[in-house]
From TrEMBL:
PANTHER family: METALLOPEPTIDASE M28 FAMILY MEMBER, PEPTIDASE M28 DOMAIN-CONTAINING PROTEIN. It comes from Tenacibaculum platacis. Residues 105-305 form the Peptidase M28 domain. Gene3D superfamilies: Zn peptidases. Coiled coil: none annotated. It comes from the Bacteria. InterPro entries: M28_fam, Peptidase_M28. This is Peptidase M28-like protein.
């Protein structure tokens, strides 16, 4: 009951905030930005996170009613933002079957202004883990940080870039399924693309906790595998936000999230993360709840990704390709 009332009040808050954050109003009233978060509505970000990580979604395991609810939420947001369907799809769902489970990625597109055929992918995985079959107390793996935080980022960035209207390149927003089963959704997506048309991959994983690199920082997997990270660092100069190379090289994280499925095809596709995963008590635990995240960290990171990737989105920078031996 408590969670329900929190959600309801958040919804009301979000609706009332919306009146003040219409893009048209923003242009005429925005002063010089002092905060990285000023273009993003924290209440909306909180609503996405708390909804996707709610007990109602039952951990969003692939093939369950819980993940269906999550998909409907994402589709509804994509529709409100005004994203188009991808390629030949007739809905936001890219359906397929694997291991006898019907599953689907959720995909929406913001068409590029002048470089329509050059794609930048913005992604996160919307699946998580099965509920514990038995036991006392909390049995739901909410996957708030892993990866409701990233999906929140995808939705928020879709709205941001739609409002901004400066995407010379097409942006493909993808919420991948079955990442936790072995990057299945992203592998399927990768099979259907002409990788040469994909100039960059921006993947978001575990972006809701302060990293060991300190406040207002994030780290990037596979930093040295292309100059993508250097481009981001250049764009973040003067913002007070810093991007570092992945501090856990031994964990091989570059190959442990959906960015890898595209990187194997040559796409400079990297994962942004903030969480100190070596000491995080909630990673792949039932305690990965929305309440354990810092919504300000999440919001600032999403904003940093928006600013950091801007020159790739607007077609000025093209990161070098990745080669994997
Ligand atoms: Zn994950």
């Amino acid at each position: 009951m408590k969670k329900l009332s929190i959600l309801l009040s958040l919804t009301v808050l979000t609706f009332s905030c919306k009146q003040y954050t219409k893009p048209a109003d923003r242009k005429s009233t925005t002063k010089k930005e002092h905060s990285l978060t000023s273009d993003f509505d924290t209440a909306t970000i909180k609503k996405h996170l708390y909804t996707l990580a709610s007990d109602d979604m039952q951990g969003r395991a692939t093939g369950t009613p819980g993940i269906e609810k999550a998909a409907q939420y994402i589709e509804n947001e994509f529709k409100k933002i005004g994203l188009s369907y991808y390629d030949t799809l007739t809905s936001y769902r890219q359906n397929f079957e694997e291991r006898n489970i019907k599953m689907f990625n959720v995909v929406g597109v913001l068409e590029g202004k002048s470089k329509k055929d050059e794609y930048v992918i913005v992604s996160a995985h919307y699946d998580h883990l099965e509920m514990l079959k038995e036991g006392e107390g909390d049995r739901i793996y909410n996957g708030a940080n892993d990866d409701a935080s990233g999906v929140t980022g995808v939705i928020a960035l879709a709205e941001y870039f739609k409002n901004k209207g400066t995407n010379e390149r097409s942006i493909v927003f993808v919420c991948f399924t079955a990442e936790e089963m072995g990057l299945i959704g992203s592998k399927y997506f990768g099979k259907g693309i002409n990788a040469n048309k994909f100039v960059a991959g921006i993947n978001l994983e575990l972006i809701g906790k302060e990293p060991k690199t300190g406040p207002k920082t994030a780290w990037l997997t596979g930093f040295d595998r292309s100059d993508f990270g250097k481009i981001i660092q250049k764009n973040l100069e003067g913002t007070g936000y810093k991007l570092y190379p992945d501090p856990y090289p031994k964990y091989n994280l570059f190959f442990r999230s959906d960015n890898a499925s595209l990187a194997r095809l040559g796409v400079p596709s990297h994962t942004f993360s903030t969480t100190p995963i070596d000491t995080d008590p909630d990673y792949h635990k039932v305690t990965d709840e929305a309440e354990t995240l810092d919504v300000n960290v999440l919001t600032e990171t999403i904003k940093a990704v928006a600013i950091g990737t801007s020159s790739i989105i607007n077609g000025k920078d093209t990161p070098t390709r990745v080669t994997i031996k």
